[in-house]
Amino acid sequence: MNRRTFLGTSLAGLSTLVWNPVSWAQGSPNLGSPTLPDPGFKRMQLGKLQVVALNDGIGRRPLVDGFVRNAPLDQVKALLASQNLPTDYVDVPYTPFVILDGDKRYLLDTGFADNGPPNSGKLHANMKAAGIAPESITDVIISHYHGDHINGLRYKNGDWVYPNARVHVSAPEHAFWTDPDRIAKAPEAMKGAFAAVQRTLGSVPADKLMKFEPGAVVAPGITSMAAFGHTPGQCAFMVESDGQRFAYIADITNIPALFARNPDFAVMFDMNPDQARETRRTVLAMLARDKILTGGFHFPFPAMGTLVPEGQGYQFVPAN
Questions:
Q1: Which of 211, 276, 311, 314 could form a disulfide with 307 if both were Cys (CB 3.0 to 4.6 A apart)?
Q2: Which listed CATH number (3.40.250.10, 3.60.15.10, 3.90.650.10, 3.30.450.40) goes with 3-221?
Q3: Domain ranges of the chain
Q4: What does pTM read for this prediction?
C-alpha cells in the first residue's frame, strides 16, 4: 500500500487498526508502578550539538493478547522471558529529545504536559533539572500525530506550553488528520484522536506552523525521513554534526525488546501494519549497519543507544 492509497483509506477500515495510545496508557493499579529514571535526563555530545533525552514518564499495562496483533500471546511472552523481562506486563516509556545548537533548541515530540495518564507529565521537571526552560524552546518538531507525541503542545487550560516555538509537522501527516471529510466521517474509535489534533494544532498561527515534505531538511543539521506505516505521514529525523549522526526514530518501533528483536511483530497502534513492518525492517537494518546512535520515544531510558543484530532482529544497547 503506497502513501497515496493509504491517505485515501476509509476511516471505517482504519478504525479496526488503531487504538488510542493515550487511553491505553492508563495502566492497572494491580501491577504496581514503574520506577522512573533519576535523573530523568541524559546528555550526549554530537559534534558541535548536544542531544538531551528527557523522560516524560512510563506507562505500565498488562500484557494481553492483541498488544502484538499478529502473534499469539505465548510467543510474545517467550521473547520477553528470553531477555529476563516480565511477562505479565509491559512498561512503555515516553521520551522526547532536545537538540541544543547554540541559541537554538529543538524539541522532538512533546509527551503529555498535564494531559496524560498516571506516571506521565514528568518532562518539565526533567527539563528544569537539565537547565532547559520551556520558554527557551525555539522549535518543536513533531514525528506524528498520536496523542502522546502532540498533547504536550498545550496545557489542559489551552495555554501554549512552548510559546516562543515554531511547530514543524509532516505535510502528509497533517493532511490526513485535518481533512474535514475524514473528521466528519470518523468512527467512534477514532474521534478522540482527531479531537486531540484539533485541540493541539487547530489554532497554531500560520506563521508558526511549518509543514515539511518527508525527506526535507527541517533545520540545519536535522533532516526528516519518511517512516510511514505507524501513521500515514510519520517521520524520523537524522541529526548530523561534524560527521556524527543521531537518528530519532519516534514510533518506528515501540518497546525494542519486542519490536526491534522481532521487526515483523506489529504493535496494536500501527495503522498500516504491513507498511510499518517494511519501514521498521529497512530503517533498523540501516541503523545497525552504520552503527548510528539511535533514540526512540518508547525505548528504555536513556532511550538512546545502538542496535546490534540479534536473532531475527536487533538488540538495543543503551548508551553509557
A1: 314
A2: 3.60.15.10
A3: 3-221
A4: 0.93
Q: Does 15 have pLDDT greater than 60?
A: no
CA distance 214 to 297: 19
The model's pLDDT over 37-86, given as tens digits with 9 standing for 90+, comes to 999 999 999 999 999 999 999 999 999 999 999 999 999 999 999 999 99
